[in-house]
Design brief:
The protein is mainly alpha-helical. It is built from 7 helices and 2 strands. The protein has helices at 2-10, 40-65, 67-71, 78-98, 103-110, 118-127, 133-156, and strands at 16-17, 28-29. A two-stranded parallel ribbon has the order 1-2. The longest helix has 26 residues, at 40-65. The protein is globular. Mean pLDDT is 75; it is low at 114-129. This is DDE Tnp4 domain-containing protein. It comes from Solanum pinnatisectum (tansyleaf nightshade).
Length: 157
């Protein structure tokens, strides 16, 4: 759930950046499945995966540093959860600016670690069958718009 909250904060259009285990439906931006990187969809998948990796490592570090995230926030309403996540980001930025070395954050920033996130599995189970076909189409269109823009910018450079 924590990853989902961060995704909503980071993305202007308020949808979750999820892995291929989720359906691409309203509020859930999933990657394309089974593609080799050679076109716009593959570029999207690569960047999508990179973003998820950064977010998962960030939450891994936060959970090791900030107790409330490790204990869980399910008993707080969603607005309070969002505020807690924002406060964690502010605290992290403050520590980065004014503390010369923070070993916990350094481990997550510089090592290729895999973060096992049970919250992600819980969110995945909540997504099954939660959407109508029209919402699915809306999210398909939104994903295609992102892919086209991303690809056009990529081939310009």
């Amino acid at each position: 759930m924590l990853l989902v909250i961060l995704y909503k904060i980071l993305l202007v259009d308020k949808y979750y950046v999820v892995d291929a285990g989720f359906r691409n439906t309203k509020g859930y931006l999933a990657p394309y499945k089974g593609l080799q990187p050679q076109n716009s969809k593959e570029l999207f998948n690569y960047r999508h995966s990179s973003l998820r990796n950064v977010i998962e490592r960030t939450f891994g570090a936060w959970k090791n540093r900030i107790r409330i995230l490790k204990q869980g926030m399910n008993h707080y309403d969603i607005d309070t959860q969002v505020k807690i996540v924002i406060a964690c980001a502010v605290l992290r930025n403050y520590l980065r600016e004014y503390q010369s070395i923070d070993e916990i954050f350094m481990v997550y920033e510089y090592e290729n670690i895999v973060v096992d996130d049970i919250d992600q599995q819980m969110a995945q189970s909540n997504n099954v069958g939660s959407s109508s076909r029209s919402h699915d189409r809306e999210m398909q269109v939104q994903r295609e718009e992102i892919v086209c823009t991303m690809w056009e910018n990529y081939i310009k450079d």
